[in-house]
Design brief:
Structural class of chain A: alpha/beta
CATH class of the domain at 47-131 in chain B: Alpha Beta
Oligomer: heterodimer
Low-confidence stretches of chain B: 135-140
Helix content of chain A: 25-40%
CATH architecture of the domain at 47-131 in chain B: 2-Layer Sandwich
Structural class of chain B: alpha/beta
Order of helices and strands of chain A: HEEEEEHEHEE
Mean pLDDT of chain A: 84
Radius of gyration of chain B: 31 Å
Radius of gyration of chain A: 24 Å
Strand content of chain A: 15-25%
Strand order of the largest sheet of chain A: 5-4-3-6-7
Number of strands of chain B: 7
Distance between the termini of chain A: 79 Å
Distance between the termini of chain B: 117 Å
Mean pLDDT of chain B: 77
Number of strands of chain A: 8
CATH topology of the domain at 47-131 in chain B: Nucleotidyltransferase, domain 5
Strand order of the largest sheet of chain B: 2-7-6-3-4-5
Shape of chain A: elongated
Number of helices of chain B: 3
Largest sheet of chain B: 6 strands, mixed
Low-confidence stretches of chain A: none
Number of helices of chain A: 3
Strand content of chain B: 15-25%
Largest interface: A-B, 41 and 36 residues
Chain lengths: ~140, ~140
């Protein structure tokens, strides 16, 4: 007589889906933080007439120590143009936004070479500023 | 006689705690992540080296120092600059004549530079930076 073997089911338990989603979320959050520049200390200059800025392809920051960063990573000013050209690629005009975050105490020696580099790479320059009256150091 | 009703213990199912954590994380991410940025866009046609200066001699020239703004050789106060540059650019009709060459002293503060560049933009000028190129010359 042949005894039928009991079939073993190997299904993923449904209650583990929450854990899987949780781990995936953490994974993507860590990936997103790689381009984050929230660790950079800088204070924006203020101006009356500021507008909401569209999303950028790249962000260049000059911090309170007058160091230059591209997308959160420190970079020498003379290397910015080349890196930006790579990042901007063949993006059409009007969609080549580059945010420039300059610490309000920076001098022309710090920010002019950076502006020149953005211009050389063909970026659409957007100075990130704070509306007059707000006090919010980044 | 009064009967005591037995209390019913209702534990939330443990398998749902990860779902609750997941939903909480999404909630806090949405709350924390989006801080809209404000700014001022600026059109820069190109930057030029000092050697190209001769070709631009008919264009307006602005020199910025930490204490003054000089428009075509005349020192101006910051509030006076906006009206003077607007008047100077009003007479120009061609785009090439609207180029304003800006040269900044090394110690020029960013807010002053921004104010000058905004005044040029508002007046319809095309801002062009003049940078001094650094060259190392070896003397034997």
């Amino acid at each position: 007589m042949k005894l039928p073997r009991k079939k073993l089911t190997a299904s993923v338990p449904a209650f583990a889906m929450g854990d899987i989603g949780f781990l995936l979320l953490i994974f993507f959050v860590i990936l997103a933080r790689a381009q984050d520049d929230s660790h950079i200390q800088w204070e924006p200059a203020r101006m009356d007439d500021v507008k909401m800025a569209a999303s950028p392809l790249a962000t260049v920051t000059i911090d309170a120590g007058f160091k230059t960063y591209l997308d959160g990573k420190e970079i020498a000013p003379q290397e910015i143009a080349g890196r930006l050209t790579e990042i901007l690629g063949d993006s059409p005009a009007g969609q080549r936004n580059v945010f420039l975050k300059v610490h309000k105490q920076s001098k022309a020696t710090h920010f002019e070479p950076v502006i020149a580099a953005i211009s050389e790479a063909g970026g659409d320059l957007i100075h990130i500023l704070e509306p007059e009256g707000e006090t919010n150091s980044k | 006689m009064k009967f005591k009703r037995g209390k019913m213990l209702i534990d939330p199912p443990a398998c749902a705690s990860s779902d609750i954590a997941f939903t909480l994380i999404i909630f806090f991410l949405v709350c924390a992540a989006v801080h809209p940025e404000t700014g001022m866009s600026q059109a820069l046609p190109k930057t030029e080296e000092k050697s190209e200066k001769r070709e631009q001699s008919q264009n307006l020239e602005v020199s910025i120092t930490p204490t003054s703004i000089i428009l075509n050789g005349s020192p101006l106060k910051p509030d006076e600059f906006a009206t003077r540059i607007a008047a100077a650019l009003k007479a120009k009709s061609r785009d090439t004549d609207k180029i304003v060459v800006v040269k900044s002293a090394p110690q020029t503060p960013y807010p002053l530079w921004l104010a000058v560049s905004q005044a040029i933009d508002d007046a319809g000028g095309i801002l062009t930076l003049e940078l001094e190129s650094e060259k190392t010359i070896q003397v034997r």
